[in-house]
Amino acid sequence: MLYYALVFLVVALIAGVLGFGGIAGASASIAQVLFFIFLVLFVVSIVMRLMRRV
């Protein structure tokens, strides 16, 4: 999932450089959402792993 967030970030950067504001904004929003989903799943995974050890 982090891979897809980075892909959308790169697409947003390229679209922004080329002047496609709408596509850049949409891609940046998608990248941000995917990053936060990845972050939440990562934290849940760490917590579950710590709970399993106890």
TrEMBL record:
Keyword Cell membrane: yes
Alphabetized InterPro entries for the sequence: DUF1328 (IPR009760)
One Pfam family recorded for the sequence: DUF1328
GO cellular component: plasma membrane
Record carries keyword GTP-binding: no
Topology term for the membrane: Single-pass membrane protein
Family: Belongs to the UPF0391 family.
NCBIfam families registered for this protein in UniProt: PRK13682.1-1, PRK13682.1-3, PRK13682.1-4
Record protein name field: UPF0391 membrane protein CO666_23965
